[in-house]
Specification:
The complex is a heterodimer of chains A (161) and B (464). Chain A has 161 residues and is mainly alpha-helical. Chain A is built from 6 helices and no strands. The chains are: A mainly alpha (161), B mainly alpha (464). Chains A and B meet through helix 4 and helix 6 of A and helix 2, helix 5, helix 6 and helix 8 of B. Chain A: It catalyses: a quinone + NADH + 5 H(+)(in) = a quinol + NAD(+) + 4 H(+)(out).
Chain lengths: 161, 464
């Protein structure tokens, strides 16, 4: 049951992301991305992390994507210009890289790997918070410094001159 | 966490505190005092690290003051202090105002101090990304020059792709080993295929960061567009940080045979193409950028050997390269007028009209070319020695030949400085801070070149 759900969600996630990067209109691409975020949230839930699933929906699909939508609507972008079809030579590096990825996947799948034992084991919020702020407290601090300076840099570079 | 734990990670605390202090109190203080605070904080952090004793236990979960950190933090602090000293009068001339510049340099230093202390892959990755983040801002700091913004955008796009590769690589290593901790207990990974895939992807990301061919395309544009003191900091610290990350990972997952071929290819391509491209450059910053591609090729040659000698050569070369490039970009920065002198021919006759700065530039070029008695010779000597001892004789010969060819474009600058006369008026006098920074960097070049013993001893203890 869980395995079937996982594969359905994985298919939705991959298709959604693929369409998000190939869509020619920004709004469509955001809607596709929101779809894939929902699929990702459900996958986190299946892996036993309901809190992460909730964060994924609230922060990514909710806050950030809505912000993106607002920005795009405020900019009032015109319909995208027509680009010429990419030539075969432009596809070549992408095909080469895709071939390498598919090849290594085949190698990985052929070598017998122990699969992750399925099953829903819920991790309580208290344990999650303990891991986040005790075990990875330094990481939280480093990230907060990084975000602070991202803000400082954005303000500095966006200053009117 | 106890008080003594706090003492061991004091360099990180000092730099983070100074960055936040400069940011908060910036509007109330003069820009000279902000620079002074920055220099004092970096000097204090560097001295604290150099005089401290490495701890074997984690200070806080995820951070440990390792012997490697004891060696690398002073190097990073030296680079940051010299950058701040150089940038003060440069920024005044170029109209770069505000507390953001020193604060961001200190933030970069904070992230650089966290990196060698990390005991966990997540923090290692976050520290590396924070360093890149600080540089995205610093590169585009000059709002009056369009090239600066362009360079920042190019660096951001390339860096984001590289970060994605590195993150994916760490995720694969995590999948293969089952934990994020970087401890010796994991030295025997079971899932060899996944681990080597992770290594490959990390190598791609690091090739961008170290600007190894074919990931080097951003380097000339970014070095040319960035303000010269930022180029000095970028070309030294971020490269040493990326090399340190590879060293930390190599200590954990011993070099695998799969890694040899890609690393050898990256190394050869960087050495040969970097030096050949530098031969053709007329712009001095682009020339130094291609030369840094070649120098990172030498560095990965030493990584390739996989022996203790090789890793010692990497650390030595990191320190030597820091001193050389700080001197070279420092001289370029302090010789700039309203605009930077871009072409090599713009430096004609400056050896006579600006003796100190011309001399430092000439010394840096001689050292980059690897001519004794400068530090560059010692660095190259140990790299090629470890490569030959490690069995990669063909690669070492290619490296030595390309290093010999590189002498042409370095010595061309020296020839312009001393064998040509120009009618241009003498450049403005050197400021005290710039003079101090240039003297410090060139003293490092000469001291390491003549008397490398103490540094080699420090590297020996750092590799335990």
């Amino acid at each position: 049951m869980e395995a079937t759900l996982f594969y359905i969600l994985a298919a939705v996630l991959l298709t959604g992301t693929l369409l998000a990067i190939t869509a020619r209109q920004a709004v469509r691409s955001i809607v596709y991305l929101v779809t894939s975020f929902f699929a990702l949230a459900l996958m986190f839930y299946l892996l036993g992390a309901p809190l992460i699933a909730a964060f994924e929906v609230i922060i990514y699909a909710g806050a950030i994507m809505v912000l993106f939508l607002f920005v795009i609507m405020m900019l009032e972008l015109e319909s995208p210009e027509k680009l010429p079809q990419p030539h075969f030579t432009n596809w070549l590096p992408a095909l080469l890289l895709a071939g390498a990825v598919v090849g290594s996947l085949v190698v990985l799948l052929c070598s017998r790997l122990r699969a992750v034992p399925p099953g829903f084991v819920e991790i309580p919020v208290r344990q999650f918070a303990f891991a986040l702020f005790k075990q990875y407290g330094v990481a939280v601090e480093v990230v907060s410094m990084q975000l602070l300076f991202a803000l400082v840099g954005a303000l500095y570079l966006g200053r009117r001159r | 966490m106890t008080i003594s734990d706090l003492y061991t990670i004091m360099p990180i605390v000092i730099t983070a505190g100074a960055a936040l202090f400069v940011l908060l109190c910036g509007p109330m203080l003069l820009s000279a005092s902000l620079t002074a605070i920055g220099v004092t904080a970096s000097a204090a952090a560097g001295l604290w690290a150099a005089l401290g004793t490495p701890a074997s236990t984690q200070a806080v979960s995820g951070l440990c003051f390792t012997p490697l950190a004891r060696f690398l933090i002073p190097v990073f602090c030296f680079a940051a202090a010299v950058t701040l000293l150089l940038s003060h009068s440069y920024n005044e001339r170029r109209g770069i105002k505000g507390e953001e510049f020193p604060a961001t340099v200190l933030f970069a230093l904070f992230a650089l101090c966290v990196l060698p202390c990390a005991t966990n892959m997540l923090i290692l990755f976050l520290a590396l990304e924070s360093v890149s983040f600080a540089f995205y801002i610093l590169v585009s700091m000059d709002l009056n020059r369009a090239e600066s913004g362009e360079a920042g955008l190019k660096y951001l796009l390339m860096g984001a792709v590289a970060a994605a590769f590195t993150a994916f690589g760490f995720a694969l290593l995590f999948t293969g080993s089952g934990t994020l901790q970087l401890s010796g207990a994991l030295a025997r990974p079971d899932n060899r295929a996944i681990i080597s895939a992770g290594w490959g992807v990390i190598l791609v990301g690091m090739a961008f960061k170290l600007s190894l061919v074919p990931g080097h395309l951003w380097t000339p544009d970014v070095y040319q567009g960035a303000p010269a003191p930022v180029s000095a900091f970028l070309s030294t610290s971020s490269k040493v940080a990326a090399a340190a990350l590879l060293l930390i990972l190599l200590a954990l997952f011993p070099p695998m045979p799969e890694l040899r071929v890609p690393l050898a290819a990256l190394s050869v391509l960087s050495m040969v193409l970097g030096n050949l491209a530098a031969l053709l450059q007329q712009n001095i910053k682009r020339m130094l950028a291609y030369s840094s591609v070649a120098h990172m090729g030498y560095l990965s040659l030493a990584l390739l050997s996989g022996s203790r000698d090789g890793y010692a050569a990497v650390l030595l070369y990191g320190a030597v390269y820091t001193a050389m490039n700080l001197a070279a970009f420092g001289a370029i920065s302090s010789l700039s007028i309203d605009e930077e002198r871009e072409l090599v021919t713009d430096y004609a006759g400056l050896g006579f009209t600006a003796p100190l700065r011309g001399g430092v530039l000439a010394l840096a070029m001689i050292s980059l070319a690897g001519i004794p008695p400068t530090a560059g010779f010692i660095g190259k000597f140990f790299i090629f020695y470890s490569a030959i001892k490690g069995g990669s004789i063909a690669l070492a010969i290619i490296g030595i030949l390309s290093a010999a060819a590189s002498a042409y474009f370095y010595l061309r600058v020296v020839a312009q400085l001393y064998m040509h006369r120009s009618q241009a008026p003498a450049p403005r006098a050197v400021s005290l801070a710039e003079g101090l920074a240039l003297c410090l960097a060139s003293a490092m070049i000469l001291v390491i070149g003549v008397y490398p013993g103490p540094l080699l001893k420090a590297i020996d203890t750092a590799l335990q």
